[in-house]
Amino acid sequence: MGQEKQDRGVTDVFKLTILGPGISYEKSIGHMQTLYLRGFVSIGFAYSYSSSFGSEASVGFYPATTLQYRYYYNSLKRMAKGKRTEMNSMNYLAGIDELFFTKVHLYYQDKTEDHWEAVNRIGIAWGIQRNYAKRFSIDANVGLGYLFTKHTYWDETGNPYTENQENLTLLGRVSIGFWLNKKK
Questions:
Q1: Which of 81, 100, 117, 172 is most buried (CB neighbours < 10 A)?
Q2: Structural domain includes residue 99
Q3: SS (H, E, C) 45-113
Q4: Each residue of 122-154: pLDDT tens digit?
Q5: What is the pLDDT of residues 53-86, one digit of tens each?
Q6: DSSP 3-state helix, strand, coil percentages of the chain (rounded to 5)?
Q7: Residue 145 near residue 126 (C-beta atoms within 8 A)
Q8: Can you tell me the distance from the alpha carbon of 67 to that of 173, in angstroms, rounded to the nearest whole number?
Q9: Beta 13-19 vs 54-72: how paired, if at all?
């Protein structure tokens, strides 16, 4: 009778990402469970059109962080097919809390003001992470979330005021980079 491969669980993983530039650390907290923390630069695209003012496009780079609880679920199936599971190279389900900051331009008659607003998204996602033997790493997830923020506007007298904004949103993130752990 042959010896069966055993599910070894998950490990701690330290990564540097170049797509969505940043740094992440994934800490094992139980069998097949991790906490994932990442600080990165979120890239935002905006396009607006007005028949009076024409069109305007912009690209912005915004500081962001994400905290995720991950549950990895397909290690035995991957091992049975001879596929890599080291460095948490598996599929996962995640609870996500993401915080990012965005720069907002306020216009009122002849007044213009720029300021930063914090935006929070919480949700659940399905993801796939692959950390290859030569250090290359790819991590992608997609899911459903809830976004909330306080947005600033001008009132009719030209004074700023804030208003809560909340809505359902899609979650999705792709990061490409390199794992930095010591090779075993």
A1: 100
A2: yes
A3: EEEEEECCCEEEEEEEEEEEEEEEEEEECCHHHHHHCCCCCHHHCCEEEEEEEEEEEEEEEEEECCEEE
A4: 999 999 999 999 999 999 999 999 999 988 777
A5: 778 787 888 999 999 999 999 999 999 999 999 9
A6: 5, 70, 25
A7: no
A8: 13
A9: unpaired
CA-CA distance, 9 to 29, in Å (whole number)?
10
| Tally of structural domains, the chain | 1
The Cα 59–Cα 101 span in angstroms is 14
Judge whether 150 and 162 are in contact, CB under 8 Å.
yes
- State how far the Cα of 18 lies from the Cα of 180, in Å rounded to an integer: 13
Distance between CA atoms of residues 73 and 89, nearest Å: 11
Number of neighbours of residue 162 by Cβ within 10 angstroms: 11
Residue 143 maps to a domain = yes
pTM of structure: 0.84
> Could you tell me if residue 50 is inside a domain?
no
**Residue 32 to residue 77: CA distance in whole angstroms:** 14
Phi, psi (degrees; rounded to nearest 5) at 144: -120, 140
Select from 69, 7, 76, 65 the least CA-distant residue to 34.
69
| Total number of residues shown for the chain | 184
Residues of the domain holding 92? 15-45+62-179
Phi, psi dihedral angles at 80 (to 5 degrees):
-60, -30
